[in-house]
Amino acid sequence: MGEFDNKEREEVFSKKVRAGKRTYFFDVKATRSGDYYLTLTESKKRLEDGVFVKHKIFLYKEDFEKFAEGLNETVDYIKNHQEVVEKRYEYSENHEGAGRNNNEDFSL
Fold this sequence. Notes:
34% strand, 4 strands, alpha+beta, 2 helices
């Protein structure tokens, strides 16, 4: 019972964002004392062996404001100094390299 209760408490909210060959996960989790924190995970399938490589950042609530300020300032800089074109990701089984294998697993 304790393990199940702990797992339920830890995973509070999750948002998955697919962006081309990468998938991003925004997960809100709770510490044992009930404090929330955020994990940002990038998952990308390595072409040479099909293994999913994941990079994770832990962001704690006391750092949210400074992190958001830095992220917003950096994004604004890029938007002001270089044209940002939103990519439209289309998957086709018929085009090599553009197709997406239905067996791909982007879960963590």
